[in-house]
Amino acid sequence: MFGNTDEILCFPHDPAVRDIWTLSIPLRRESIHAVLDVSTCFGEDEKAVNDLLSFIIHTDVSNISGRDVLLACLKENAIHENGRYLLPHTVDVFNISKT
To answer: What phi-psi label fits residue 89: left (phi over 0), alpha (psi between -120 and 50 degrees) or beta?
Structure first.
């Protein structure tokens, strides 16, 4: 199970993790520090731009106002390397043990 109760506090918004923890199912979380290439957000393919931007902010951006502000923020915070725009992107992997 979680090493301490502080870990569960990191995921109160995630119903699946909360339910697994509530059921006392052994669960281990590992964070993988990765990089997300957001260069597509600055290309010509509107569907690809909307898909990636929607993934990044966890909502459908196809019909929102302020999309240009979001893109400007991405570009400002990204590392520009070899013609690509890269952002840090931590991913959590959950290992659920059989009981």
So the answer is: beta
State the average pLDDT over residues 21-42: 86
- b/e 23-39 (16+ beta carbons within 10 angstroms → b): eeeebeeeeeeeebebe
Q: Quick check: pTM over 0.85? A: no
CA dihedral over 94, 97, 98, 99, signed as positive or negative: negative
The pLDDT of residue 12:
47
Cβ contacts of 95 within 8 Å, gap of 6 or more: 27, 28, 29, 30
